[in-house]
Each structure stands twice: as structure tokens, then as C-alpha cells.
Write a structure and sequence with these properties.
Rossmann fold, 6-phosphogluconate dehydrogenase C-terminal fold, amino-acid biosynthesis, NAD, prephenate dehydrogenase (NAD+) activity, about 350 residues, Alpha-Beta Plaits, 6-PGluconate_DH-like_C_sf, 7-stranded mixed sheet, 4-stranded antiparallel sheet, globular, alpha/beta, 11 strands
Length: about 350
């Protein structure tokens, strides 16, 4: 691959362009909003000029509803050797292209499993896809050359290729991406009319659960409108669990001992199933999740504090496996949680205490 055309210069398209451009690929940028393409070009993602001839790869980085018309126009112009899209839904766009009578021998649907709460080219980064799964959905009898170009794109973006059937992909993302977005939004919506005193009690748990609720509604309407059936199926199962959990909680208020015991079993059941499901979420480097120890350290909200604590952890020869910050309400301070291998926790805690850090037991 020497040349590429990226159609759509939002977060994903511009990030792809930045990754390709940084690895020596000449990238041409197109967008329905020329100003956005110019912004991406100014960031170093390529040029907003028209390509002088057919490119090696055209990538449609547009919302699911626009994939088919965008690619159909590109295919009819013959602007590339291979055509990919990176939309979060795969079955629908391919069926739309087939209905339009397009020759799909040079097309392959893909989906990089990466993103941010922020959108647009200014949020883009060449490192967005590093280590992230990138789903490829080749059709039966597809062109091997197109698959090879897609694999080259994934490699250049330093992502991890995963091959799936298109409709199986759509059911999977309904479970692991689209439904969590709605559930996060549903929880966050409870805060809209909540008493200010209650909101001031928000801690790390509610921040974790509602983080993705900050995502752009328009973007998610595009995604959910393209995959409504599978998402509704998952939400229906969640709804059934909620009804049983509500009934179990009501039973805990009953005067009857047997009813309370049944309620307790019902609540415990959903908590235990949650534990079991959480254990299946891949951990670091895609491996099974590890049981890390947390060393929680009081840290001031001022420049240089994070660098200093990481440097001190390095002096202890301890590898930080993961990290999170818990902000203290109304204070210029908080706690940084350093997640390490269990045998390293006492070593790290002792080293940090010696260097003047306050450790929360």
C-alpha cells in the first residue's frame, strides 16, 4: 500500500489517516464538510486535495447509514483498488450495497474496536488503535488481495485483526458496546433531576458507570439506528433481570422471614453472575484478567505529582499494571490507585512510604 483515500475525517477517519501518514502512506482526505478535512490535513493526517488517480485503498469512515451511498459512489468512480468501511455495524451496510447492485469483489467491511467520548478530528490520534481488536468481515469467496490490504491497514495501525461473520459481529457489539452505552446513559439520566445534595456524594463508582454517557447523542443515534434488533434483544434480557432484581429487593422489605431470605438469594444471584461475567472480560494484553493488589496513595492535584509517583514506583522496580484516579469531592487532592502483582504490593507500599507518600490502608 502506497496511497489511501480516507472519506470522513472524524475521530476514526482522522486517526486512521494519522497512523497511515506516519508510516509513509500518502493519504488523501475527503469529507462532506471541507473545513473538517482541512482541519485533519492541518493536523498532519494527509492532504485535502483530490488524488491524481486511483489509490490503493479507500476507507469510508462515515456513520453506518452513510456507508452504502458513500462506498457506492466511490466504487462507481473506480477511485481505488480496494474499499473498506469502519462503521460499527456490518451486516446492514453490505446488504444495502448489494441492493444497490454494486460490485463488491473489492469491498470488505471492518470495524476497529476503539474510540473516545470526544469526536471530531481534533480528538484524533495515530495511537488510537494500538493493541485494540479490529474486526474484519470477509464475505465467502471474497478477493484475497482485498483481505491482504485490510490486514496491512490493521498492521499499520498496530491493531489486532479478528475475523468474524458480519451478523455475528453485530450481535457481539450489541452486547459489549451498544447496550453498555444505553445502560450508562440510563443511569446518568437518573442524576438529571436528582437533588443537589445527592449529586455532591458522587464517587468513583458513579463516575465509572456513567463515563461513556458523555458520548455524543447524534453519533450514537446513527449507530443504534443501524443495529436496533440485536440491541433490543440484549436490553430485553437486561430488563428481565431488572424485574427479578426489583422483586427481590421488595422482598427484602417483607415482614415474612422466608420472603426476605428469597429476596436475599435473588439479589445475591445477580451479584454473583455479575462477578462471573466480569471475570470473562479480557485483561492486560488480552489475557485472562489478573487479580491485582491495589496500592492507594494520597496525591495532590498539582503539576508533577503523577510523574513523581511513577518515578518512585520505578525506583522500587515495580511494574504498574493499571492505574486509576479517585478525585476527592471539593478538595485539590485525591487518591491514585496503583494496581500491581500481589507480591509487589508490600514492596511498593514500603518504598512509597519511605519517600513520603501517604498510603491509604
Amino acid at each position: 500500500m502506497r496511497t489511501a483515500l480516507v472519506i470522513g475525517t472524524g475521530l476514526i477517519g482522522t486517526s486512521i489517516a494519522l497512523a497511515l501518514q506516519s508510516r509513509g502512506i500518502q493519504v488523501y482526505l475527503a469529507d462532506h464538510d471541507p473545513a473538517q478535512a482541512e482541519t485533519a490535513a492541518a493536523l498532519g493526517a494527509g492532504t485535502a486535495e483530490e488524488p491524481p488517480g486511483p489509490v490503493d485503498l479507500a476507507v469510508a469512515a462515515v456513520p453506518p447509514a452513510h456507508v452504502a451511498p458513500t462506498l457506492a459512489a466511490a466504487i462507481r468512480r473506480g477511485c481505488a483498488r480496494a474499499y473498506l468501511d469502519v462503521a460499527s455495524v456490518k451486516g446492514g451496510p453490505r446488504r444495502e450495497l448489494e441492493a444497490m447492485g454494486c460490485d463488491l469483489s473489492a469491498y470488505l467491511g471492518t470495524h476497529p474496536m476503539a474510540g473516545k467520548e470526544r469526536s471530531g478530528p481534533l480528538a484524533a490520534t495515530a495511537e488510537l488503535f494500538e493493541g485494540r481488536p479490529w474486526v474484519l468481515t470477509p464475505a465467502e469467496g471474497g478477493d484475497t488481495e482485498v483481505l491482504n490490504i485490510a490486514l496491512e491497514l490493521v498492521a499499520l495501525c498496530r491493531a489486532v485483526p479478528v475475523v468474524m461473520e458480519a451478523d455475528a459481529h453485530d450481535r457481539a457489539v450489541a452486547l459489549v458496546s451498544h447496550t453498555p452505552q444505553l445502560v450508562s446513559s440510563l443511569v446518568a439520566a437518573r442524576l438529571q433531576g436528582a437533588d443537589e445534595t445527592a449529586v455532591r456524594l458522587c464517587g468513583q463508582g458513579i463516575r465509572d458507570v456513567t463515563r461513556i454517557a458523555a458520548s455524543a447523542p447524534r453519533m450514537w443515534m446513527d449507530i443504534l439506528s443501524a443495529n436496533p434488533g440485536p440491541v433490543a434483544d440484549v436490553l430485553s434480557e437486561v430488563s428481565a433481570d431488572l424485574e427479578r432484581t426489583v422483586a427481590a429487593l421488595r422482598a427484602l422489605e417483607a415482614a415474612d422471614d422466608e420472603a426476605r431470605a428469597a429476596g436475599a438469594r435473588g439479589v445475591e444471584d445477580v451479584l454473583r453472575r455479575g462477578n462471573a461475567g466480569r471475570e470473562r472480560v479480557p485483561g492486560k494484553h488480552g489475557a485472562a484478567p489478573a487479580a491485582y493488589e491495589i496500592v492507594s496513595v494520597h496525591i495532590g492535584d498539582q503539576p508533577g505529582e503523577l510523574a513523581r509517583i511513577f518515578a518512585d514506583a520505578g525506583r522500587a522496580a515495580v511494574n504498574i499494571e493499571d492505574v486509576r484516579i479517585e478525585h476527592a469531592t471539593g478538595q485539590q487532592a485525591g487518591f491514585i490507585q496503583l494496581m500491581v502483582e500481589p507480591q509487589a504490593a508490600p514492596v511498593l507500599a514500603a518504598e512509597l512510604r519511605e519517600r513520603g507518600w501517604s498510603i491509604r490502608q
